[in-house]
Amino acid sequence: MNKLSAEKFLQALEICKSLDTVQRKPSNLPCEAIELFCDLGKEPANLLHLCQQHAAQIEPALEAIANYAASVDNWKHGDCPLGVKDHCNILHFFLNVHTQNFKFFRGQNFTPEVICSFLHDWKGIYLTVLLEYPPPALTLQGGATDTKPACAD
Fold first, then answer.
1. How many other β-carbons are positioned within 10 Å of the β-carbon of residue 113?
2. Which of 13, 43, 40 is nearest to 146 (CA)?
3. Which among 1, 97, 112, 131 has most CB atoms closer than 10 A?
4. 2, pLDDT greater than 90
């Protein structure tokens, strides 16, 4: 994992936390964070490792995402497909790949598998490997292996 990946992850976390400042309004912020997470998701092992490494910083972001999702309708906004509640579902997914404690803010049809399929079709990233339990050994950039179970945190 490189320093740029960690910076992108922390930037995405800050964007998620800032959702508390735009409640009840459509915003590009969820889409911006999704774009950063998608870039990180090109290397699933790195995304998993970053979530594990920054687990303590994720909770405030999850709270801001939930608050924002509760304050908006599923408006289409920004360059991301789908609506803003769906964007919140995707953000929550990205920030819980290490715990697999997924929460959805609109309907029960939005499952982790559906999100993975959507992200694969939209961005060409394959994250389904992160849903397997126990997760297979994932090779981090640089050759290290991460075999920590997703629910170990």
1. 10
2. 43
3. 97
4. no
